[in-house]
Amino acid sequence: MKIRDIGWIVVVAGPIAALGLLLISSSVMWRFNEKLLLSELENRFGRETATAAAPMEVSFSEATSTRQSVALAEVLDSASEMEAKYSHVIRFEFQTQTVTPEDQQILDRFLAEYASDLGPMLAALDAIDFEDEPIWMPVEHGRIDAWAGNISLFRTVWRLLYTDIIAAVANNESERAVRSIERVQRISHALLLPQTPTTELVRIQARTQLHEALEFVLPKGDWTPEQLERIDGALAERFPYRESWQAMTQAEQIQAIRKLRGEVTQETNFTEVLQAPSRRRNWLAYRNELERLGTDSPTRLIEAVDKLIEKQATLAGQNRLDTLVSFPFSNAAPYLDQSDNLLASSFMNLENDRKFYRTAVAILRFRDRFGEYPTTLQSLSRIDYPISETISLNQWSFGYFNRNNETRLVIAGRGEKWDGRWTLTETVIEFPPARPTTLSD
Amino acid sequence: MVILGGMLVLSGLAVLGTNPSSPTGGAFAAVLGPFGGAVPVLALGLLAFSWLGVMVFKQDGSVERIRFLADRGISPSVAYAARQALPLAVVATSLFLYGSWLWAREFRYGETTQMPSLLAMTLFSLVIFGVSQWISQLIRTLILSIILAPLLSILSVAWLIFGYTMIGFPIWGIALVSLFPFVATALLMRRYMDATDRPLSIWLASVVIATMISLPVGHAMYRVFSTPGMSDSQRTALLAQGEEALRDASAIQLTFSWTAPDTFGPDGKFRTPVGQLVQALEGYAEEPSDWLTEFETLRADPSLGAMCDPYFAEQWQVRTTAAKLNWLNAEEAEASDAFEAFAKWVEASSVLLPAFRQSRRLIDQGNADRMESMLVELLTSEPLQSKLDDDRIRAAIDSLGTPDSRADARRRAVLASWHGVVTKRRLNWLALPVLNTVPQGLTKWLKPRYDESFVLAALEGIDACRESGADDGWRRELHALQQPEGVFEWSRYGDSMRSLPTSITQMRYGMKEYGELWGREWEYRSLEGSK
User: What does the pLDDT read at residue B71?
Assistant: First the structure.
């Protein structure tokens, strides 16, 4: 054979061999990554959970208490019944709707009826001891994704309590309103295991709903100093950001174990694609890193999540050769989205709002004490209110105006980060004219 | 050759350019549409592959060259390899570059377009190239090959894609099929060199085409026929029983009154939000007989059956439970009123329950199961024990069935509902979720078989539940058909969930499955003074 012939054979056979080699090494890498992924899961969650048919069940079944679940299910049934009956009262936009005096009378009558109808449900809710046994309803794993059917019903409970607070203030029953404020705080704190993103969002919603009610009732209510102290106490408690973040990012990984093991495929536009193991490993590594980001400061969390998203594509090593033999698509980045960022920014909004409404309460406490509103927010130190609470996480002080008998507290700079941009909103609380003080300093 | 090379380079550049983050790529993406613009340019590359395939046997002067080789006594296999080598090398190089590009792309942040994987591209390129080289051997004129090859190869690819997505033809099948045209040309090489390939080549062509069509179809047919159903005699017998069950059944459709208020009042004027609120609250049905249309008709005629949407049966349970909670948590002065309100729901349930059992629709048996399990758990609960003498509570106890009477009603309903599906007379049979997991093109063929397996499993379960201590075979089957890809042990058919009270295992919002409440503990609980 001449050199020219050998040259020809190399030119012709080379590319074919190279293509073959690429495909074969890609398949080998598929197996290799699959094994690596399984051992990563075992290291991380323990053998029992990593190999269980229903990993969530293994992790959380001991948190289920039948007795408590039954009691809670009845409360939730009662809540949906209340919601069905009073849907128009619940959805009534108290903040914005202007009402004629006659209509106001009718509204007050129905709010009073609402209050008495809600009584038994609140009694049953108060009878549940959230500290006693952890409460979790049974989760069904009959479907691809575990289904905890009735979680969303808690939103109804928050909505009912929101209306109860408003109804109580409209009816001059400030004690009842304070009890419901404390109730939201207590239940949202103690409820709900395991902390998946869904359940944590429900918990966050409880507080958001409470804040919305406060915006309406704080300036209107006839609060005693002792009641204001209690509201302050409820608002002083920060949402457990670090624990919540870590718990939910971890639960998310456990929830995904069946997908990670390749037992469940992922729907795409055309057909189902089994993600290459390296992509699944990449997802797991990313969630792992997310879990470790846990920090008490929501703003630092947002920055860290942003940075992590940037480098997500290169996590978990460089051997992504196996993606070449997935079929029919080599999916580019379906895991990338903005939702982690959104969750972190909902933390920030929650913390800003908490500080804002607590400051509003402090202004009322100041007025009760000195018979006039403070001239600046710094004056709140006279009632031992920490000044750090008057500054939002963005390091902006809340806007405060006290001139010509008009007193307003403004929060701006709340917002959501979406698509790299912030949308901002602002909330204003206008305080009623100061009344003569009953207490002397 | 130069033109084909140009096409490949162009499509390669275009693929690289579709990265939306680069300025030129942005322009490409804008022009070429939301699929990242990759499809049209990939098509250009595939067209080039097809013409490369044509070059194998129909390049300028190639016929003469092959004759020359034949005259020199070169073996057909060497000649075959020599003809295939260069075009195949070009295809392999392009695919190698494509694969490397895909690989590099994995690490870039923000890439979101879906591209065919290297495996997919290799298989489909092989089909296109293979079909094209085969056409070029089969057809004597160059120009006809150039026109026909791309058309037929695209048709083959389309058929295989259809096979994969619609009728579940596997990847190894596509790989197998892609080799047939190569086998055909290799087998014919000697005769082709001697120019004696006709008419054998035509025969062989028919065989290749027939195999390419029949393999995916045969695979799908095998899948359909290996799915268990009923035997003919079983089917005839059970259908007859179903028809029998339907014969003297009469049931009325129940609806519930809604409280959606009108935006406009009777005077034609716009209602204020407060006006709407008043109307909604005043129209709210507090009592079961107000809430439910036709309630008095049912009460008057106990032989009537009742049909209703599972959502309403769920709401019924919610309202009854809420009434119970109101009673137990009422302040002392209001306790007796609250009990009256609760007792009305219990009494009304005793009218509804037998009516649901009368219905021949399987979903109404589900409604009845939901209501009856609720009543059993309610009536055996501690607070109710002091109220067992109350007439309305008594009525509820009397309305409860026995395992046998329930089994009879369920059996009737399974057979009658299924009979309705087979004869297309009724449309109340929910599609079994397992159908969502099979290729779309096969659902029509698999549905009757899955329905039949369901009927058999349900009948087995119904009979097993006449006495407690049933085995779990029927439950596994019902789970597999209704909750495909879930985990049986922890599903509502598994022992763990089934040992819990029914009130906490039934999920809300109409997510329910047939037979989930059968044979659970409530069915065998003995009530004081019940039948």
Answer: 81
Comparing CA positions, the residue from A406, A402, A409, A399 lying closest to residue A432 is A406
Instruction: Round to whole Å and give the CA distance between B28 and B131.
Output: 31
Q: Sorting pLDDT into bands at 50, 70 and 90, what band is A38?
A: very high
Tens-place pLDDT, residues B284-322: 888 888 888 888 889 999 889 999 888 888 889 999 999
The reported pLDDT for the residue numbered B21 is 40
B439 Cα to chain A: minimum distance (Å): 9
Q: How far apart are CA B254 and CA B361, in angstroms?
A: 13
What angle is formed at CA B516 by the lines to CA A156 and CA B420, rounded to 5 degrees? 105
Nearest to B96 among A22, A143, A334 (CB): A22
What is the chain B residue with the closest CA to A153? B508
Task: Cite the DSSP H helix spans in A218-297.
Answer: 225-236, 241-255, 257-260, 277-292
pLDDT digits (tens, 9 = 90+) for A148-175: 667 778 889 999 999 999 999 988 899 9
Smallest Cα–Cα separation from A348: which of A429, A428, A414, A425? Answer: A414
B27 has pLDDT over 60: no
* Residue A201, token pair as written in the block: 């969002």
Q: Are B154 and A318 in contact (CB under 8 A)?
A: no
Between the CA atoms of B344, B345, B348 and B352, what dihedral angle is there, to the nearest 10 degrees?
Answer: 180
- Which residues have a Cβ under 8 Å from the Cβ of A265 and sit 6 or more positions away? A272, A273, A274, A275
Is the confidence at residue A138, as pLDDT, over 80?
no
Angle A35-A41-A46 from CA coordinates, rounded to 5°: 125
B162 part of contact set with chain A, CB < 8 Å: no
CA atoms within 13 Å, Cβ hemisphere of A163: 29
Is the CB of A140 less than 8 angstroms away from the CB of B110? no
Rounded to the nearest angstrom, the minimum Cα separation between A313 and chain B is: 5
pLDDT at residue number B31: 42
Instruction: Please report which helix (H) or strand (E) contains residue A415, including its range.
Output: strand A406-418
Distance between CA atoms of residues A310 and B70, nearest Å: 62
What is the rounded CA–CA span in Å between residue A293 and residue A312? 14
pLDDT digits (tens, 9 = 90+) for A239-252: 888 988 888 888 88
Q: Reduced to 3 states, what is the DSSP secondary structure of residue B299?
A: helix
Rounded average pLDDT over A414-421? 53
Q: List the one residue out of A150, A193, A361 whose CA is nearest residue B508.
A: A150
> B270 at the A interface (CB within 8 A)?
no
Write the Ramachandran bin of B221: left for phi over 0, alpha for psi from -120 to 50, otherwise beta. alpha
What is residue A63's predicted lDDT score, i.e. its pLDDT? 63
Minimal Cβ distance to A142: which of B274, B325, B483:
B483
Q: How many residues does chain B have?
A: 531
Q: CB A66 to CB B500 under 8 A?
A: yes
Contact B505 A138 (CB under 8 A): yes
How large is the average pLDDT for residues B341-360? 95
Say how far residue A19 (Cα) sits from the centre of its chain. Answer: 48
Among the partner residues A66, A106, A113, nearest to B274 by beta-carbon distance: A106
Q: Quote the radius of gyration of chain A (alpha carbons, Å).
A: 28
Measured between CB atoms, does A144 come within 8 Å of chain B? yes
Is B511 in Cβ contact with A147 (below 8 Å)? yes
Q: How far from A73 is each of A116, A189, B311, B331, B444, CA to CA, in Å?
A: 21, 19, 17, 21, 40
What token pair was written down for B438?
A: 């099979």
